[in-house]
Amino acid sequence: MNVTDIRVIGLSHSLPEGKGLGDARGIGRTRSTTLLRLTTSDGTVGWGEAFAPGSIAQSTLDELFRDDVIGMDPFTVESLAESTYTDPYHFGGSVFVQSVLSAIDTACWDIIGKTVGQPIHRLLGGTERTALTPYASTMYFAEEDRPIEQPIETARKEGFTAAKIKIGSGVSADVERVRTARSILGEDAHLMADMNGNYRPDQAIQSARALSEFDLTWIEEPVPPENYSGYREIGRAIDTPIAAGEAHYGRFAFKRLLDDRLVDIVQPNLARCGGLSEARRIADLATTENVGITPHVWNSAVGLAAAVQFAASLPAYPHSRTEPEPAFLEFDRSHNPLRSEILRTPFDPTDGVLDVPQEPGLGITVDTTALEQYRIDS
Fold first, then answer.
1. Rounded to an integer, what distance in angstroms lies between the CA atom of residue 371 and that of residue 378?
2. Which positions make up the signal peptide (predicted)?
3. What is the CATH number of the domain that holds 341?
């Protein structure tokens, strides 16, 4: 069996005028991503996602990957990540190379799972889980004028027992947003706050200290991803755990976060970090350093499916005789048909439980008719 065809499918969806959402860095109305469809000589189809614009993903695939992937045995997929660091030598760590690698890698794992009749999380080993704890990624900064409590109230009514909200626009605003979320979710709920790298270290420290009374599960990206010294400074100054990784690509970037103990939780995005093969290596590094790991998800349903399979395989180390923390999975609550409409059976995170598909591969069926509604020329 070998790969005989690769198709790049760029997708995009825009919110109506005046309905934009965002974070402390800015607000946008368009969500875009790229799917990759691999077909093998026996007709097996595998799906992956590159969290990158379709035109860039297409060019990167054609220039750097196509000749190696056509004719490739999907079972040799883990060698593909190795080769990206050596050929092309100077580009292997770039976001677009890692994004396209992510899509190819995930699609190959999907094919492997379908071929052997097993879900990917069973193939990855580790802890076998049938369900995850979804946390609502919500309370975005909004273009429209609306009560700040509205999104978090919706999440609570949907049954979420954990949530992550956007902050990072100033200490007083941070306190107001976190206080509001905590009062609605309750004292026992897990609450995370995402600064999206919008602060200098001194600003992030000031905000984190002001938020200490609200018992945050973690603070995410307090400074820009390249500000490694800033992460170190913040970690020495605050007690709240720090999470990061959505803007880091490949095992070597994550190794730096882990070697220098700059964060308490690493968050690889399965559509950007290098795919399931690299994510597994990152998980091994994190477990070795006794650092938490939970995937970042801001993707279509295909990238979400990859994150679900990965999260379901993660070990609970070292919680052998204590109650482990929930196996978290980020679930965006903004309107996004690229997540909610392109599968025959969409993921359902309500009531505080997200079932892990037990069907082979990613465990999903892509609705190719629905794809055409959001397809763009790549």
1. 14
2. none
3. 3.20.20.120
